[in-house]
Design a protein that fits this description.
Distance between the termini: 172 Å
Helix content: 10-25%
Largest sheet: 5 strands, antiparallel
């Protein structure tokens, strides 16, 4: 009788211990509807022989605010957050946008030529020095300067010289002239003062000869236009032969040269 009672007591104590170990989980399952979603359960720290309390949250399931930027979360490799979404689309779109912007920049910023065309002699002012037998010509010329770029350019200076009989009879330099807008054209006038004297003083007799109306002489015009843009300087040069009337003042109207009625000095 005594042995059977002690055995029954031990079995009863083991059953009570097992019920005490499983009773919290079973009770929670019973209260939540027996087998509900596991995510609905509150955080439970299971401590036992083979378990250790988490040193971060100390069994509370919450991370201290002071350690938010110091802790590293371990994410499983199969987590959806590690899988890139539309990466190829974003990379392709970025490459296309970069190529488009680069092409537009090259198209608009690529330097194009500056065209310079000589229109002709606009006017000639003539004066004489009878004692020195010299002829003075102030020749005003006209240029058309065309900007083929998509940005403004500045005409830094115009350098010109005039030759007669292979001798330089006049030079001129005009600086800081004007700016030309993108895809625009401007007409620029410049003047060169020339002197025909010394070994060419025989031209005084020709230019003051009263028996002829037009006293044309052939001169060679040389002009160099310097333009600047983005710190880069570009030069365009031209040479052309022109006839000027050394017998009186003339002006050009719509491309035609008409003389002034200016009295000549008496011989």
């Amino acid at each position: 009788m005594g042995k059977s009672f002690s055995l029954l007591t031990k079995q009863t104590g083991q059953d009570d211990g097992q019920e005490s170990l499983t009773s919290p989980l079973e009770d929670s399952q019973t209260e939540d509807g027996k087998g509900g979603d596991v995510s609905q359960f509150p955080y439970v720290e299971f401590t036992g022989r083979d378990s250790v309390t988490c040193p971060t949250c100390q069994g509370t399931g919450r991370i201290p605010r002071g350690q938010e930027n110091q802790l590293v979360a371990l994410i499983p490799y199969s987590d959806q957050r590690l899988r890139p979404r539309r990466t190829k689309l974003y990379v392709s779109a970025s490459v296309v946008v970069c190529l488009l912007l680069s092409s537009l920049a090259v198209f608009f910023l690529f330097p194009r030529s500056i065209d310079v065309s000589y229109v002709g002699v606009k006017s000639v002012f003539v004066s004489y020095d009878q004692e020195k037998r010299s002829v003075y010509l102030n020749i005003t010329n006209t240029l058309n300067i065309t900007n083929n770029n998509y940005y403004s350019v500045e005409v830094a200076n115009i350098t010109a010289q005039v030759q007669f009989a292979k001798t330089v009879i006049g030079k001129s330099r005009i600086s800081n002239m004007t700016a030309i807008s993108p895809l625009d054209m401007k007409q620029v006038d410049y003047m060169v003062s020339t002197t025909i004297a010394d070994e060419m003083n025989y031209m005084y007799d020709y230019c003051t000869l009263q028996t002829i109306k037009v006293h044309n002489i052939g001169v060679m015009m040389q002009v160099t236009v310097t333009t600047t843009y983005f710190g880069h300087a570009e030069q365009v040069s031209q040479e052309m032969y022109q006839y000027v009337d050394c017998g009186g003042n003339t002006t050009s109207v719509r491309g035609m040269t008409q003389p002034f009625s200016v009295p000549h000095p008496a011989e």
